[in-house]
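Exercise 3.2. Students should predict the tertiary structure of the chain below and write it as C-alpha cells, then compare their answer with the key that follows.

Predict this chain's 3D structure.
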Amino acid sequence: MQFTISRAIPLILLILLPLLGGCVAAVTAGAIATGSSVHDRRGFGTVVDDKRIQLGAYDEINRDKELVLKNRVMIAVYNGVMLLMGEVRTPDLKARAEQTVTGFEGVRRIVNEIDIMEPEGFWTRRNDNKITARVKLALTDITSVPGFDVTKVKVSTAHRTVYLMGLLTSEEVEIVTEIARNVPGVERVVKVFEYTKPSTAH
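Answer key:
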C-alpha cells in the first residue's frame, strides 16, 4: 500500500484526536472530515451529514443536565447509523438518552450500546482514549487487503470495550476485528459494521 503525505496527515490526526480535548478536538475533527473523505467509502456529503448529526445529537444530550452531570453518553455516527455508548445509572436513563437523540434527519438506525453502571472515572476514560489510539495505529499494519485504509474504520472505546464502525468487505471486517481484539487493554470488541462487496469496495 502506497503511503503518501496526503494520506498520512488525516491518519495522524485520527490517531491523536482521542488524546485531544475540548475546542482543539472539535476543530481537528473538522479538518479530518475534509482530509479523510478522500479515502472514505461514504460520499463527501454523507461524511458531512454524519458529523452534523453527531454534533446535533451531543447538543441535545447536553441540554439534559442529569444525563450530562452524572452519566457519560458517547455518540458516533457513520453512514447514517448512530451508535450510543458509555454509562448511565438506570435503565430509564438509557432509554431517555436514545429518545433524546431520536428524530435527526439522515439517521437510518440507532444502536444503543450504553451500559447501565456507575460512570467511569477520569483515568479510565483517559485509558479508553489510549486504547482507541492503539487500535487505530494497529490497523495501519493491514497490508494484505489492496486499497485498505485505516480511515475507513471508525473506532471508539468505552470502559475498555472497542466499538468498530465502517463500510467494509467481509474479509476486511474479519481482519480488522481480529487485530482490535489483540490490542493490549481491549476487553471486548463490538462490531457495528455495514458490508460492501469487494468489487465496489475501493
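Discussion points: The chain has a mean pLDDT of 86. The first strand starts at residue 72 and ends at 78.
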